[in-house]
Amino acid sequence: MGHQGFWVTVTSKFFLAAASLALLGVAYGVIKGAIRRAEIEREVRVLQSEISEHKLKNEQLTRLIDYLGTAEFQEREARLQLGLQKPGENVVVIPDLATTDESKAGEQTPAETRSNFELWLDYLLGMN
Question: Using CA atoms in the order 7, 10, 11, 14, what is the torsion angle rounded to 10 degrees?
Fold first, then answer.
């Protein structure tokens, strides 16, 4: 009779409802854990890419620091910033074409100082 009592209990509506709820609870926990694991993996990938970027920047800055400490850089900066030269060298200054063009553009002729309306009026009336 114990055997029949077991099947009666297992097949009862209450037991099936309780077992279904327990199964849903376990499934919810598994799905929630999988979602959380995926979020953590995505976050780890983002952090690893940031680490790679920072390592690259660090390497570039290290190379820059090494270059800034060289005699070549110091000599170049002394020439550019302080105008220093080696014995026997002559400094030749070549004017920058862009600055000479800008200075010429800044010089306006009297016709250029008049308004556009006045220039058109003179053109239409033949007063060039």
Answer: 140
How far is Cα 112 from Cα 104, in angstroms, rounded to an integer?
Answer: 13
Can you point out the beta strands (E) in 11-91? none
Beta strands (DSSP E) in 34-119 are none
In a domain, 71, yes or no: yes
121: amino acid identity, one letter: L
Dist CA 106 CA 116 (whole Å): 18
**Is 120 part of any domain?**
no
Say if 19 falls within a structural domain: yes
Using CA atoms, how far residue 48 sits from 35, 43, 45, 123, in Å, is 20, 9, 5, 69
Please report, as a single letter, which amino acid is at residue 28.
Y
Q: How many residues does the chain have?
A: 128
**Is residue 128 within 8 Å of 122, Cβ to Cβ?**
yes
**Residue 44 scores a pLDDT above 90:** yes
Structure letter (DSSP) for residue 77: H
Is residue 58 pLDDT above 80, yes or no? yes
Question: Whole-model pTM above 0.70?
Answer: no
